[in-house]
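Hey all, quick one. A colleague (J.T.) asked me to put the NAP job into the tracker so the inputs and the structure tokens live in one place instead of scattered across chat threads. No bug as far as I know, just bookkeeping. Sequence used:
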Amino acid sequence: MQGKTVVITGATSGIGQVAAERLAAMGARMVLVARDKARGEATLARVRQAGGGAAHSVHYADLSRLSEMKRVAAEIAAAEPRIDVLINNAGALFGSRQLTEDGLELTFALNHMSYFVLTHGLRERLQASAPARVINTASDAHKGEKLDFSDLQSASNYRGLHVYGRSKLCNILYTSELARRWTGTGVTAHSLHPGFVATRFGDESGGMLSVGVRIAKTFAISQEKGAETIVYLASSGDSEVTGASGLYFYKCRPATPTREARDEDSARKLWQESERIAGMAG
Ligand SMILES: NC(=O)c1ccc[n+]([C@@H]2O[C@H](COP(=O)([O-])OP(=O)(O)OC[C@H]3O[C@@H](n4cnc5c(N)ncnc54)[C@H](OP(=O)(O)O)[C@@H]3O)[C@@H](O)[C@H]2O)c1
């Protein structure tokens, strides 16, 4: 990873933090996107310690707000002449329905729209840096879920785990559509399931959901193990990573997501809806 620049969201905690440190240790220059100053500075210090040679940096943004997603993407594009890898990883689970300032349901805004808007905002840099990669942290929580295009903001019958699962379904659909649309650009895109990992995930979901996730985490794998597939996708020269695009990985191997996650019509519709929501074209 010597000489490579890697942009990563959600690196102030959990699997993102471990991945950022590992990639820095492999020689990459890390560009972090964080929302909290204290956690951002602390992570930057850890990344510097892991990989001292490079000029790592941090940018701040609340990735649940469209204006912040766009601002930080523009800021990074202006600061970075090249971007070799973009890792969209920030995400969360919310026990109750909350709306963002844009009128979007919070899980959908943070877990899906931030991936869409950040990637779009860094498109020129990524394509100019080809061969480059986009890596989207998804989840097996997409299993059993289906998108309802008449209610993408989950206005009716909000259930946190299902809404979370649908946002992760969005991650897989978005990745495959991105791969199709960016064919021939030299930028590949893959999504992944990290496993069920003992991170801060779920701690702030609220109510019984937090209690349930905390109990379930007794059986979870370590953050180090959970970060492995991200690090693999960011750094591997294997042909199944570099020679393919739009795949879903688990345990550093291509895996098959559900039929709903492979539905090209849904992927296209989601892209169009996301463009409309973000007020972006192309
Ligand atoms: N843990 C699991 O079992 C599991 C399983 C499958 C998939 N995943 C996925 O893995 C990814 C990382 O999760 P994790 O398990 O490592 O959880 P985590 O420890 O809670 O980390 C989540 C990261 O997202 C950031 N974040 C949350 N809200 C944000 C916002 N509004 N703006 C900017 N950043 C924000 C957090 O920042 P702060 O430090 O400021 O809170 C943190 O860096 C997520 O996409 C999650 O869906 C996790």
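Adding what we noticed when we looked at it: The chain has a mean pLDDT of 96. The longest helix spans residues 160-181.
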